Amino acid sequence: MKKTMALGSMILLTSLTGATPAGGAERAVRKPARLVPTRLEYAASPAPQAKQPQWKSRDEYDAFNAMATEKDPNKRISLAEAFLQKFSTSDFKDSAYVVEMQTYQQLNQPDKAVDAARKALEANPDSREALGFLSYVFPFMFKADDPEATSKLSRADSDARHGLEVLQKWQKPQGATDEQFNTAVKGLRSVFNNAIGFVALQRKDYAAAQTSFKAAAEDNPGDVYTFYRLGLAYLYASPADYDHAVWYIARAVSLAQASKNPAGDEIDKFLKRAYVNYHGNDQGLQDIVTQAATSPNPPDGFKVAPMEVPKATGNPVVDAFNTMTFPLKLGGEKAQKTWDALKGQTIELGGVVDSVEKGADADTSLVRIGILDQTKAAGAYDIELKDSTQPHAKYLQKGDVVRFKGTADSYATTPNLVLTLVGEITTDLPDKPPTKEKPKPKAPVHHRAAAKPTT
């Protein structure tokens, strides 16, 4: 019996075009609760090709149809496995793996969905569904500290570029309107370009990342993560382009607020830190977010004014820190000369503890300290004091006032300037963890007896 496949040609990809990051440069954004979309929509048979897949028996067709139409996702997985085992040479093997991939998406099991997508590509290297899914989830699942990070980036780049090649050959399926087909093409093209841009971002090829993210944004101007990543590509460039970076991340914030994206709060905090670091305060930022909601690109002449040279505050710690670090924020040759003179120098200052974490080495602590009022107001910090071997440093609490001493080791300017020192806390440290107050017992509640009803 010969029948063409009744399932498998993608038409609408609206659930695939709302992609994240995270990893590497996207560490400020938390992963959403659900990593992958939960459904794809399909149309009928594909456009004519050189060789059409064929059913080898009625039994094969019925087994595939039963699997594809099963509503219970766990039963659908069992039916898919049974189909793949019984009909291992089926022309629709890749489609069965795609059904598994979609079902694991529905069950929110991304690792298994990725495995199914890989098997679909083994059966059919040109599977648009599998290539699209892998390109979509990669930024969310990638970890920069993965020992296989380099090879995974290469594979993701290859998958996405091959996806663009496959997409160029895709012919409109029978029964699909031009609008449906164009929507699907744009959705997939945006996903592939987003993945290519993400790989370039991790490789610190910021110019290439900007090009790919712009292409993705043109096809999907409503995607939160595309604009967030595009902003990062401008922010991390050398020198940083704060005008474009602020606009595109503000666009991401506005889109996240409109769609109630769970990553919106983290993106908003990141934007505020970057803006205050460059502008000096958050004045005007909300106006930019509001304006960016109406346009994917900044208007001609849009500028973010840099902060003025900090004036003396009368606080010797704040003034010393500003004098020392302000040139670093400007970038370029002046920043490099400033750092060449500062690196390795001993610095003694004071501030307020923001947080304490375990250090990179055993029995060391990483103490984050805020100095500037605008930095602390943005929920950030100015100093990372690393490699402290003081055993009691771990007992410090947020808000503790401390003094510290260390040698300048490195610095970062995004999203706000942070100076890293190797050294120690010089004020007295607590000798034990803070005691938690026991909750006071609640006063007993006396219930007044209910009045007897009158007759």
Distance between the terminal alpha carbons, to the nearest Å? 85 Å
Q: Which structural class should the secondary elements be placed in? A: alpha+beta
- Secondary-structure element series: EEHHHHHHHHHHHHHHEEHEEE
Largest sheet: 5 strands, mixed, barrel
Low-pLDDT ranges: 1-50, 449-455
Q: What can you see in these coordinates?
A:
The structure is a single chain. The protein is α+β, with helices and mostly antiparallel strands and 455 residues long. The chain has two domains: 9-238, Tetratricopeptide repeat domain (Serine Threonine Protein Phosphatase 5, Tetratricopeptide repeat, Alpha Horseshoe); 316-425, Nucleic acid-binding proteins (OB fold (Dihydrolipoamide Acetyltransferase, E2P), Beta Barrel), CATH 2.40.50.140. It is built from 15 helices and seven strands. It has helices spanning 58-69, 73-86, 93-106, 110-123, 128-141, 149-168, 178-202, 206-219, 224-235, 242-259, 264-279, 285-292, 316-330, 332-342, 373-377, and strands at residues 9-12, 41-43, 346-358, 365-370, 383-388, 401-412, 418-425. The strands form two sheets. It has a five-stranded mixed barrel with strand order 3-4-5-7-6. It has a two-stranded antiparallel ribbon with strand order 1-2. β3 and β4 form a beta hairpin. α3 (93-106) packs antiparallel against α4, α4 runs antiparallel to α5 and α6 packs antiparallel against α7. The chain is elongated and about 85 Å long. The N and C termini lie far apart (85 Å).
